[in-house]
Design a protein that fits this description.
2 copies of one chain form a homodimer. Helices cover 39% and strands 12% of the residues of chain A. By secondary structure, chain A is α/β, with parallel strands linked by helices. Chain A is elongated. The first copy, chain A, starts with 10 loop residues before the first helix and ends with a helix.
């Protein structure tokens, strides 16, 4: 790992220059310096043999006289802690272990970073990020940062990035909004926190899809709300089963997570009618619909609504990289003042470092180019995976998906009854595959059964190998 | 603002290339493309006169035949939406307003970033950041990112940065910890959320200092706890007033916020005894003690405790820049597994983008050099401010502070009774000064009265001018 520190000896100067001297104390400067130097040397056995700064340098760094420093050096030479070499300076003595018992800091090896296993879902192929371009945007933004970057931070996030997001939404998601309605967050979790703590209030009954993103339950509990799961059917979220007591609904209309179903227009209209009639808020989580391979996408639900009773959530984790930790929310104009008030009270959490770089990356057109390139790559990978899974067509109902980054495969119809999706996932994991189980996304009884296969982040060769392994896993299980 | 988008016409290509075509629909590709192109042109009046891509380019981008594109271009030329110029291509017609009523998006001017007003506290001088070095660290980390940066993210944060923090704490804060005990957060708010939701549990009674950082009350309420303020005295946190029912105490022992009092050793020992006896946890918020100008700093409370019943909180907001949004917590080894479990359940929020750059910035020694430089600069600025405030010595008890980035000036003794610190702050704000009122940091009755004057971020000339203005404000009020 190239970033691991390797200069322990040069740390001596850092530690020495960090000493503070106090002329107001009864203890003499000489005693203070001797004590500090002793502590530093005793604490670090790896300083043995390290060269100390000249008495002139240390005196200047600590704003004390050179005589004081020289007196301390002389004292510690006589005590055996330091040695002097003719004409070459003062060094930490090589055998000081008998003088004190240094307590070494326990240092485990750096943890190995785990690689992603094939079929991990929700992951873009980050190896295809235009690294040079992205690094250049970062470097340009921070080499001589604009005064605005160093001023009082905008609680909604860096304005030019919000403007770029507004342009992106108009072009890709048929959602017209003012950059003033866009709030940069550190991801969906923060967005939900702002929504419930800042806008809607807590102790709400929140209708969610079943199945859904599993962390949503934790987030709703953590933010002090009650989740009310509504089972989806073949057309997605069952709007007619929405209870009137719900204060909000969290939905993935463009592409239901994880099944991939797109909510048809009549249901969208019914959902917005429900919100208008009951005064509820619909929160649209639009997590990967930019990757559409066939067909005109339906406009976003929030676009259809004109952002009246809807809040739109987006993220760059799947479009660029999860390393960014940059997401955003778009709020109705009438909620803007409340949003701002909450953000000013609690402060921003998204780092400002990536924001100007992401803004120029988007405005330069490189972002859209990257999305189009990824769309072609992911489309090819999906086709490839579908081909590699044909040997399983008697067991699984594998169908092409018009968008997204994973395939969701229903299980119940053709597999033996006693084999659950969890069984398949566990077995596959033993063979190095990271499949998702649809039942783990459900809480209602009669959990749906299915497999989630992410393909976006993996090369075609990896997908072939992984599909072959999956074939033998399933053959052995059935 | 240099990052604001200026290429509206080149957005046409971006929008066009984002169109998806669906061969499985009943609608012909020609109709689909015509509809999409019509929508794009109608929505953006500023596209008038923009040049369209050649039919060959657009056909290739959309994976459809060139004939289809040419047919749509021809149709829309005949409808009046497009015009063709001999040998030079196809353009959006200049008068399409009669053809459709485009709805322009309301776009307010970009908000002006507010500058920081003199005496704003808690702010480093970011104009003195080594921008070139910092930008180079960012560029190097992300130009060809290490595979570890793109793998499954470590829920505790980037390991080499945690190692650098562990080294820094050993050298500057006499706190020895394993890098495995360090957790990177997006700031104090996230740290408290992890502590209460993940480690200690909610519905706790938490002793806090009065006065204290005002946001602490909100954070404790938001995380589902009860704050129990304990009034400080001249020696800081009054440990003997700590009620036994408290489950935790949040303290600033190195430098009480905002008064600047350092907790004496006997009280530190008593506080740790209390924690040991009652099973409570002490949370040490060590926010700016690296900037010490005189005297050996007391070791951190957590260092004294050996991190048994203490959790240590640090941040780079004041040491480097608030733009980073990078803080950290150091947890006792016995709480590590619980911490990890919570982080894995809820996911990281701190952006990974700045972390490797901050790690190499620290390991290269540039960070320590920056801290030493800032320490000299801030010490000079404090001395300068003290001098500029001498004309007020009959009204205010202005004393030098051995550390920190602001002065806290008690008010009650010499000012007329009817003048409160809030009055002074309001009046000063009218004269462009951002003073803090100590009473706004209190909730207990008989609120303390005082002024908080940040000096770190302001040049000496600015401080002189601001001090002069403060002199006339106070003279006019008394």
């Amino acid at each position: 790992m190239s970033n691991v520190k390797t200069f322990s000896k040069s740390n001596l100067n850092r530690d020495l220059f960090a000493i503070s001297m106090d002329t107001s104390l009864k203890t003499s400067l000489q005693t203070q310096l001797r004590g500090a130097l002793h502590d530093i040397i005793s604490a670090s056995p790896d300083l043995v043999g390290a060269r100390l700064p000249s008495s002139r340098t240390l005196a200047s760094e600590l704003s004390i006289s050179r005589t004081t420093v020289q007196a301390v050096y002389d004292q510690m030479i006589s005590e055996g802690y330091l040695v002097t070499r003719q004409g070459s300076g003062t060094y930490v003595a090589s055998d000081i272990t008998h003088l004190s018992q240094p307590q070494p800091i326990f240092r485990p090896a750096a943890p190995r970073t785990e690689p992603w296993l094939p079929f991990q879902a929700g992951l873009p192929d980050q190896s295809l990020l235009p690294g040079r371009q992205w690094a250049r945007h970062l470097e340009r933004a921070w080499r001589a940062p604009a005064p605005e970057l160093l001023g009082r931070p905008d609680p909604q996030g860096w304005y030019p990035l919000r403007e770029a997001i507004s342009d992106h939404l108009a072009a890709w998601r048929h959602l017209k909004c003012d950059p003033g309605q866009v709030v940069i967050t550190s991801g969906a979790r923060e967005a939900f926190e702002v929504i419930f703590h800042g806008l809607l209030g807590t102790e709400k009954t929140v209708a969610i899809e079943d199945p859904c993103w599993p962390k949503l339950h934790t987030i709703l509990t953590d933010t002090g709300n009650r989740a009310l799961p509504v089972r989806i059917d073949k057309e997605g979220f069952a709007v007619d089963r929405l209870p009137n007591e719900a204060h909000a609904a969290i939905v993935t209309p463009s592409r239901h997570y994880p099944t991939g179903v797109s909510l048809p227009l009549p249901r969208r209209i019914a959902l917005l009618d429900w919100a208008r009639q009951t005064g509820a808020t619909v929160i649209e989580d639009d997590y990967d619909s930019e990757f559409r391979y066939r067909g005109q996408p339906l406009p976003s639900l929030s676009g259809l609504d004109g952002l009246n009773n809807t809040i739109y959530l987006g993220s760059f984790s799947k479009l660029v990289s999860p390393a960014l930790r940059i997401g955003y929310m778009v709020v109705p104009k009438r909620l803007l003042q409340k949003t701002l008030g909450y953000l000013e009270r609690t402060g921003p959490r998204a780092s400002l470092i990536p924001q100007p770089a992401l803004g120029t990356f988007m405005n330069s057109g490189e972002f859209a180019m990257h999305l189009r390139r990824m769309r072609r790559v992911y489309a090819r990978r999906q086709t490839h995976l579908l081909g590699a899974l044909t040997p399983l067509s008697d067991l699984l109902d594998v169908k092409a998906d018009s968008s997204g980054m994973h395939l969701c495969i229903g299980l119940r119809e053709r597999l033996p009854d006693q084999v659950s999706d969890l069984d398949v996932c566990k077995l596959a994991h033993k063979h190095g595959l990271q499949l998702g189980a649809v039942s783990k996304h459900c809480v209602l009884p009669n959990k749906m059964q299915g497999l989630v296969l992410g393909y976006a982040a993996f090369e075609e060769k990896t997908l072939s190998d992984a599909a072959n392994r999956l074939v033998s896993v399933l053959r052995s299980a059935c």
